[in-house]
TrEMBL record:
Taxonomic placement: Eukaryota, Metazoa, Chordata, Craniata, Vertebrata
Similarity annotation: Belongs to the FKBP6 family.
Keywords: Isomerase, Repeat, Rotamase, TPR repeat
Secreted as UniProt keyword: no
GO biological process terms held by the UniProt record: piRNA processing; spermatogenesis
Source organism per UniProt: Cavia porcellus (Guinea pig)
Catalytic activity: [protein]-peptidylproline (omega=180) = [protein]-peptidylproline (omega=0)
Annotated protein name in UniProt: peptidylprolyl isomerase
Annotated GO MF terms: Hsp90 protein binding; peptidyl-prolyl cis-trans isomerase activity
Enzyme class: isomerase
An annotated GO cellular component: cytoplasm
Domain PPIase FKBP-type: 58-147
């Protein structure tokens, strides 16, 4: 599978000598504050640098990614072979804390390379047989799109009486989010899930 065997740029980032790897870490930005998550932007995303263009906690994100171990030329994990990646919800569907933090710093369309130390990846035990103990891993991640679904989820969990108290502008925003999520699921041929999304919000 071609998508599994190469990164988003088509070249394995770790098919290099150790000295090159060390230079890579030196030019990366420390986004965790303790050196545990390092970032290098490969391609800038869309929009200006303000809070509106970054995902929020509990946003639903559409990403492509490939994960590499040091000195290995094939990814141990990748979803690049999929025609349409699965929509994932921050705070629920992503198991790597480093990836969660990294996505919160990305803009739509951005492609970036990250190094995750064990604390932000697979920990002291690793994930046998693929991930050895105390492994630092590299991920190339492309943020294709995101939807801020936190407010929508909060709204849909309310009773009908509580929903009636919501301001109209917020209700319209929730309805738009649910429609966009439904449209995405419909394009994936997940018709039942799309129908659930379309029916979640009724504007009185």
């Amino acid at each position: 599978h071609g998508g599994e065997a190469r990164s988003a740029r088509g070249v394995c980032p770790f098919a290099v000598h150790q000295s090159q790897y060390q230079r890579l870490t030196q030019k990366m930005l420390d986004i965790s504050g303790d050196g545990g998550v390092l970032k290098d932007v490969i391609r800038e995303g869309a929009g200006v640098l303000d809070s509106c263009v970054f995902p929020h906690p509990f946003s639903s994100v559409l990403v492509k990614y490939s994960g590499y171990l040091e000195h290995m030329d094939k990814p141990f994990d990748s979803n690049c072979f999929r025609k349409t990646p699965r929509l994932m919800k921050l705070g629920e569907d992503i198991t790597l804390w480093g990836m969660e933090l990294g996505l919160l710093t990305m803009r739509k369309g951005e492609l970036a390379r990250f190094l995750f130390k064990p604390t932000y990846a697979y920990g002291a035990l690793g994930c046998p047989p693929l991930i050895p103990p105390n492994a630092t891993v590299l991920f190339e991640i492309e943020l294709l799109d995101f939807l801020d679904s936190a407010e929508s989820d909060k709204f849909c969990a309310l009773s009908a009486e509580q929903q009636d108290q919501f301001p109209l502008q917020k209700v319209l925003k929730v309805a738009t989010t649910e429609k966009d999520l439904g449209n995405y699921l419909f394009r994936q041929n997940r018709f039942y899930d799309a129908k659930v999304r379309y029916k979640r919000v009724r504007i009185r």
